[in-house]
Design brief:
Helix 1 packs across helix 2. A five-stranded mixed sheet has the order 4-3-5-14-6, with helices on one face. Strands 12-7-13 form a three-stranded antiparallel sheet. A two-stranded antiparallel ribbon has the order 1-2. The model has no long low-confidence stretch (mean pLDDT about 85). The chain is about 40% helix and about 25% strand. By secondary structure, the protein is of the alpha/beta class. It has three domains: about 70 residues, Arc Repressor Mutant, subunit A; about 90 residues, D-Maltodextrin-Binding Protein, domain 2 (3-Layer(aba) Sandwich); about 100 residues, 3-Layer(aba) Sandwich (D-Maltodextrin-Binding Protein, domain 2).
Length: about 290
């Protein structure tokens, strides 16, 4: 067994939690993946994984290896790519995480443009509105709105996002427009349950953050769905600006209460802290800075 193949099989198994998922990631059989890991354990003289009928877990030795091996594999891939005939090309798998709506609206198209000049690069985009554990799930780079919560993560600021209050011309013709944030309590509002408090909108008023309690018949866990309901005249929505740009420009939605947007929140590229940043991750961050800045 090649030592590197064993380490790759171990990392994939540890990150996915099963030999089956690891085999799918590596493009080999389940049996071969299990064999590689077993031979690696025999060669090192330690048990790396605790096997059960449903999943695998890490031993202390496995935790130590997983903490260092992914970076070493990335460095090796970068070295090999740099020594090839086309040293400028990127290769391997680049695993990216992003919030669902932002990923659908912007990230997926940005990744398509980024990958075009790199035919040997595979993009694995995972969209989720939960806070993904980068180390556990093997994520190279995450796009997140807000400040990182974990000290082991590093952030590169790409821009800022704010949310705006909008409604359709039809809704406003039937119900009138709020003139002050407090007036929102008398309107049908569309609540996005991805927010920490869906029924409490935090708005800027004379530079101060003011919470406003709202209510409505529609609760959704998607900013895009909230936008769509607002377009249909179902109520007033409070959505991130990247979802609204085209509809505001075309007059399909109207921005309400100018000056009462949400506080601006940073849009960051998040990655694990470490001594070396893999070349493909660094290249994507630089590309995102140009695209999103």
């Amino acid at each position: 067994m090649d030592l590197l193949e064993g380490i790759r099989a171990f990392v994939a198994t540890a990150q996915t939690g099963s030999f089956t998922a690891a085999a799918e990631r590596l493009g080999v059989s389940n049996r071969l993946t299990s064999k590689y890991v077993a031979e690696l354990e025999l060669r090192l003289g330690v048990r790396l994984l605790q096997r059960t009928t449903r999943k695998v877990g890490l031993t202390p030795a496995g935790e130590d290896l997983l903490a260092r091996a992914p970076v070493l594999l990335d460095e090796l891939d970068d070295l090999v790519a740099g020594l090839g005939e086309d040293g400028r090309g990127l290769s391997g798998v680049l695993r990216v995480s992003a919030p669902v709506t932002f990923g659908e609206v912007f990230v997926q198209d940005m990744l398509r443009r980024f990958a075009e000049p790199h035919p040997d690069l595979t993009i694995d985009l995972r969209l989720s509105d939960r806070f993904v554990d980068l180390a556990t799930e093997g994520i190279d780079l995450a796009f997140r709105i807000g400040v990182p919560r974990v000290s082991a993560l590093r952030a590169r600021k790409l821009g800022e996002v704010c949310s705006r209050i909008v409604a359709s011309p039809d809704y406003l013709a039937r119900n009138g427009a709020p003139e002050h944030p407090a007036d929102l309590t008398n309107h049908a509002c569309i609540l996005d349950t991805n927010r920490a408090a869906a029924s409490r909108w935090e708005l800027l008023d004379a530079g101060q953050v003011v919470p406003v309690e709202v209510k409505g018949r529609f609760l959704v866990n998607s900013a895009r769905a909230a936008r769509d309901l607002a377009l249909a005249g179902c109520g007033i929505a409070f959505c991130p600006d990247f979802v609204l740009a085209d509809d505001l420009a075309q007059g399909r939605l109207v921005a309400l209460l100018p000056g009462n947007e949400s506080p601006h929140r940073p849009l960051n590229a998040i990655y694990l802290d470490g001594p070396v940043l893999p070349r493909k991750v660094r290249a994507l961050i630089d590309f995102a800075v140009r695209e999103l800045g």
